[in-house]
Each structure stands twice: as C-alpha cells, then as structure tokens.
Amino acid sequence: MQNVKEIFKKHSGYAYLKDLKKQGIHTDTIRKLLVRGEIEKIKSGLYRLSDFAMMSHQGFVDVCMAIPKAVVCLHSALSYYELTTIVPEVIMVAVPRETKAPHLEYPPVKVFYFSQTNYETGIKKVHTKNGDFRIYEIEKTIVDCFRYRNKLGEDVAIEGLRNYLKLKDANINRLFLRAREGRMYRIIKPYVEALMV
Q: Per-residue b/e over 76-97, b at no fewer than 16 CB within 10 Å?
C-alpha cells in the first residue's frame, strides 16, 4: 500500500489508472483504497489521495486535472478574486464549444461552452503546491459575468464590478480593453460610469 501512496505523492496527490497499472498496481488494490476512503475518484480513471494536504482552491485543481481544457470562470473566478460575498455551490469552468467535458464524480461542476475567441482570451495559470489550475484574469472575469448576467443574475455581475472598482490596482483601461475584445463595452461602460460617481 505504501508503494501506491508514493505514486500519488510523486504526482501532487493525483494518479491516473493507466499510470497505476503501469506501476503494477492491480485494480483490486485501487478498489480497496476507494472503499477504505484512502483515495477519492475524481472522474473515471483519475484518483486523488484523500489525506493529501488540502488547499483552499483544491476543487479548481481537481477540475483542471480532470478536464484538460477547463478554465475557472464566472462566479467561481469572482470568488477566487474575493469580489463576491457568495461562494458558488458549483465550480464554474469554461471550455471551447467543440470540447466534450467528462462527467465528474467530485467536485460539482457547471461547464460553460465558450466560443474559441472568448475562450482563449485572458487565461492565466496559478501554481500551487498541490498542482496548477487555469483561471481567467480579473478583468476578463468581470466582462464574462456581464456576458452571462441572464444566467448568473445581474446582481452577481454588478457586485463583482463594484468590488473590482474599489481595488487599489483596478485598471479601467484594461477592463474596457477586455470589454471591447468581448464585445461587451457598450453594456459595461454605463455601469462603470454609474458606480464611479
């Protein structure tokens, strides 16, 4: 069993079934570890060591490991940047429209299918000791929340913008640049003007 745990630890607490099998670990051993709660199934073929030191955004790492093109977005990104008081019940991620996202056992995920242009803009990578995740930069997040305001609620987008404008390093020019790129400038500009009065 110690040999199995070492494989997980070498890969930041994660292991793919195919890699475990290559190391000579039998599926019965994996099943026993699951039943005992020593490992958790993230998706078919991907597992995480249960007692591996958790971090505050572990779910983001889990989702980005399970869905290779996933980028944390919308309400989840607002929460990461501390621009909302409401913690979303699901992790919201974007993938390109043509991507088929797998079903995850854990954590709960809501997938948004972005156009290729909208998907590719403003992605940044966050490095943590337990793995990496991709997330949209702060200004892109604000713009996307306005784009999806009918699904998220306009109050979520406005709260995010209001809190963004209070930041010392808020950059209106960069926000408007992202808004123009995303064809949301005419929507966002009046909100910015009203909130800055």
A: bbbbbbebbeeebeebbbbbee
